[in-house]
Amino acid sequence: MLLAAVPGGGCAEEEPAAPVPYSRVYEPETSWSMSATVAWEADQTVFAAAGETKRPGTAIVYPDASLRILDRDGNLISESIGEYVAKTAGTMIPAFFLRDRETGAALKSWLVQHGLLDCFVVSTPELKDAVREVADLPHVRGMMDYSGVTQADPASLAGMAACVNEAHGKTVILSEEAATRENIVLLQSLAATVWVRTAPDTESLLTMYTRGVHGVVTDDPLKAIRMLEFFRDDAPTLLRVPLTIGHRGDPSSYVENTLDSALGALGEGADSVENDIQLSRDGQLFILHDDVDMSRLFNREDIVPEELTLAELKNIYADWDDPNRGIPAVNEVSLEASRNGKFYGQDEKKQYAVPTLEEYIRAFRGTGLIHDTEIKSSNPAILPAYKALVDRYGAWDQFFSITFVPEILDAAYRDYPELSMGALGFLSQFGEMILINFGGTAKVVNLPAEPETVLSELYSVLDTWNATANISYGGAPKEVLSAGRHRGMTFWPWTYDTEETRQAFAEDYLFGMSGLTTDFPWWTENLPEEIESEDITLPAGAELPKPYGRNKRNERFVLEDAEAVKAEELPDGTSLMLWRCKADLQLGDESFGSYYLYSEPFILRTETPAADLPKTGDTGKPLLWTALMVTGASCLGAAALHLRPAGRNGHR
To answer: Sorting pLDDT into bands at 50, 70 and 90, what band is 632?
Structure first.
């Protein structure tokens, strides 16, 4: 028999329970594939809610040191954590909010005994260590609540990402005030998962959804679900546009892993650049993919790069002439497959030695570009050198680290748990089995298996290092990835490295992956990814002014085919509206379907009677979308005007 703490300090016998499997979370009916998850500040109705069809993905409760389950205000939900878990965890993910260390110790003891396989442990940064003590258990995920913070700059956001990493988690809870679009995107670029504590009104929920949050924390989960089901389009809805990651820069136009290549990718609108870093004999960080020798590109098979000093490496130049080992033949994208039939610097045979990571930091400081840094070396000494260099520049707001190397994953988690780490590996379906292979740990899941079963096996590997899933493209079952988003997992496929992979890239873009690593970052440079909005006062009979959009290159243009959609009529006679636009997913010169973008909500004041405007309602039923007197022809727009939007909902 197991002993459970009871009020008053005594103990009661409790039957041992079988481990609770991963929760079967409700999936809303929405065209937003990787839609935000809904977390609920649970109350005494939680047992009834667990049996409903429509229910939140996560229920947050507040255990005390006796492991009674309370709500946020201290009202009793259950005298026993065992009863609570038995009645709710099958359909909603438990999230236990710690208010003191004693509760953390009691919760950890209970979880060890009962093997709950799918839960969060949450607290504020002051109890980060207590959260980690619990979250170090297999399948338990840490979460940091920053909802008391109303303003945040890039450095403080990087600190939030580091703190939640140290707490063995990925999910950060923000306040609505701090959850600007820019802040959300930056945290997501640093591999953090962003939930926002959101008021349960239509405007607040739609604002957070259209800013691309991963989740909302709310007192009214059914309203939050109805607002997810507001988005029912005839093509995928992208409220969180995938990040484009240039693989070694843009190797289709430049020599790979050079500053020119990285700058080229940035100019093409890439959000991140993937770099390969190694450690020279004298302790300097340099950027080079090949680690066994330098025969490719440099035509020096006699050299092991990490055995040289930086000065020695800087005296070796890439080869333009060798037909088998020179740049035109063996660059990541060969000359034959290059974008323009010529590489930058080819005519003058520009000299390229290996660049340093410090050169990259200096070149891109303040640009917003994220260094998606692959640690290629297997020497753990690279980690303190890496940490010291980025610390010196205070540049952690631009760094996300990835690796295939298990020794690096182990050392990073042990010695530098604050680092945002992604595990490079494989999640692929082959016939009647799914292969999970990261950091030398391989598992096979036989089909048929529920998505949650596969997810639990995947998480059992990644949880070892508190790592994101940086998976090979094309093979991952989408149902597994969708279930993972409710647990704060993010997915970063690699590498779309030939023109023939554009179809797979398009499918993953429309699905809403976190970031896509490609040799062709220019594929997405002209794609619209944002619609501006601001409050409008419209004289009677006037046409609505057309909204502006922005593409990946931050160019501003008119969205001439946008529709104004009513979300709600407000008591003062105004209307809560959103802009909606159907965009063409044109990657380079080829179209791969369409997707919908939405603006943040705005207020429309008009002399036109509100009853005459199109109405969607708030019922969860399919919506009737109607345009409001907007002329034009194309969502792709025309001239790029480098102007800043005005109004409370303007971005960038």
So the answer is: very low
